[in-house]
Amino acid sequence: MIGLGAGGIAVGASLQTGVNRALAPVRGLGDVLPAAGGFRYYSVVGSVRERTADEYRLAVSGMVGRTRAFTIPELGALKQTQVTRDFQCVTGWRVPGVAWAGVALPDLLDAVGASPEATAVRFRSFDGVYSESLTMEQARRPDVLIATRMLGGPVTHDHGGPVRLFVAPMYGYKSLKWLGAIEVTDKVVSGYWERRGYDVDAWVGRSNGRDDEPT
């Protein structure tokens, strides 16, 4: 029994060391929830107040012809695009073949009349802290979505809903959750994790593990 107890302590210590190493790249997260369907739920601020579909607004401003505050029905009235891609986190975990749907960012930019002089797009989360940016060339890709649906249903709060960003060819930290505002700008502004040492251009691969085309 003493031997088994000592062995358990040794194994437990080894497991804890492995967990600590696995979480080392994401130190500073306010909340790391257990896996569900292969996903890990991260938040840099801990609890984020849920917004209902009725109260949600997506503010689009900056170098645009028309400032807008889109409701979810208004987003749904725009051309819809479907994309199936793997979701790859920079910490190493991956969920294959996730089905996403929503408004392709190029279509949203056209709807507000993004200025041809603009060179970047900035995104802000309604958690009040998280932000991200893309170059205009990156933002104009057809596989960058203002996602309102995933896995066959609305984007849930834990997944960053009711509306989130999905940047198919880049690591998950570029796919900002709880999307609240978009600003069309003349420069790339480093986001939350870029200011903490992560790459500004977070390419995973040519098509993030799949060759499916958006529809």
UniProtKB/TrEMBL annotation:
Signal peptide (residue range): none
Gene3D superfamilies linked: Oxidoreductase, molybdopterin-binding domain
UniProt keywords, alphabetically: Oxidoreductase
GO molecular function: oxidoreductase activity
EC number(s) per entry: 1.8.-.-
Segments traversing the membrane: none
UniProt domain Oxidoreductase molybdopterin-binding: residue ranges: 47-193
Protein name, entry field: Sulfoxide reductase catalytic subunit YedY
Organism: Actinomadura macrotermitis
